[in-house]
Amino acid sequence: MRILVTNDDGYLAGGLRALADAAGALGEVHVVAPDREQSATSHSLTLHYPLRVRKADAQVQVVDGTPTDCVVLAVGELLTDRPDFVLSGVNHGANLGDDVLYSGTVAAAMEATILGIPAVALSYTGRDFEMMPGWTDVLTRLLRQLLVRDDFPAETLLNVNLPPVPPEEVTGVKITSLGRRAYVGSLTRAEDPNGREYFWIGGGESRWWGNPDSDFRAVHEGYISVTPLHLDLTNYRLLEDIGRWGLEL
Ligand code: MN
User: Fold this and answer.
1) What is the dihedral of CA 172, 173, 178, 181, to 10 degrees?
2) In the chain, which residues have pLDDT < 50?
3) pTM higher than the cut 0.90
4) Distance from CA of residue 170 to its chain's centroid?
5) Which residues are within 8 A (CB) of 12 and not within 5 positions of it... i.e. 6 or more apart?
6) Rounded to the nearest whole angstrom, what is the distance from the C-alpha of residue 93 to the centroid of ligand 1?
7) What residues sit around ligand 1, an ion, with C-beta below 5 angstroms?
8) How far apart are CA 71 and CA 78, in angstroms?
9) Which is nearest to 10 in space by CA: 39, 40, 44, 35?
C-alpha cells in the first residue's frame, strides 16, 4: 500500500513525523508537505505564483505552497504511482466542530477525497506537541483498522481528533458528529510601536456546544473522536422550502 502523508504545520512538525512513522508500519510512505506553517489556510490553492519543490530526504518532498497544493502536486506529478491512501496531520491543535472549515489539515484530506483517494485527517487536541512520538503505536493500531477496509466510504473523509491525555490513558474510540464552537475575545485591536493601528485575529477563549455525540465531548472524555465528513454542503432539508419562495426573473 502506498500512503501519502501531508500536513499544514510544515514538514518539520513533530506530528507529521509521528504520523509518517505510524504509517510506515502499514505501507510505503511518501511525505509531500509545506515548507512552513500553513495552518488555517483552509482549501486554498496557489494560482498566481509558481510552486517550487525540493527533496528534504529520500522520503520527504517539500513544497512552498498550501496543503492543497501539496496533494495536487503529489498525486498529479511528484509520486510515480497514485497513492492508495492520504493521511493529513497529525495537526498541532484540535480540528473540532467549526474548525474544519478553516483547517489546512482537513482541507488536504478533502482534496484527496475530491481526487477519489480515501483520506483521513488527524489532529491532537493537547498542547504538549513534543510528546507526539509517543502516539506512534496508538496511531498505527487505529490506522491499520481504517486502511484495510475495502468498504471505505466514497466522497467521505474521516476527521480524527486525539484526546489531550497521554496515549496510554486513551479511553477508546468514539464515532462522533461535528460540534459547534464560538470564540470570545479573539479579535485584538491595538497600535504598533509607530502608532499605526493594527488588528490581530487569534487567541481568546472558545465555547463549545453540540449534540451528546459531538466530537469535542468525546475528546473531553478521553476518547479518540472519528467524524465522517462529506463534501456536499447542500442543505437537502431546505430544498423544498426555498423552492416555495418562488424566486424568478
Ligand atoms: Mn496546523
Assistant:
1) 30
2) none
3) yes
4) 20
5) none
6) 7
7) 8-9, 39, 91
8) 10
9) 35
CA of 13 to the centre of ligand 1 (A): 9
pLDDT digits (tens, 9 = 90+) for 176-192: 999 998 888 899 999 99
Give the SS3 label for residue 93. Answer: coil
Pick among 3.40.50.2000, 3.40.1210.10, 3.30.230.10, 3.30.9.10: CATH of 2-179+210-243: 3.40.1210.10
Going from the Cα of 40 to the center of ligand 1, the distance in angstroms, rounded, reads: 7
Q: At residue 54, what is the residue type? A: R
* Mean of all residue pLDDT scores within the chain: 96
CA of 88 to the centre of ligand 1 (A): 10
Whole-angstrom distance, CA of residue 195 vs CA of residue 199: 13
Distance of CA 241 from the midpoint of ligand 1 (Å): 38
**Ligand 1 geometric centre to CA of 223 (Å):** 21
Contacts of 143 (CB under 8 A, 6+ apart): 22, 23, 26, 87, 120
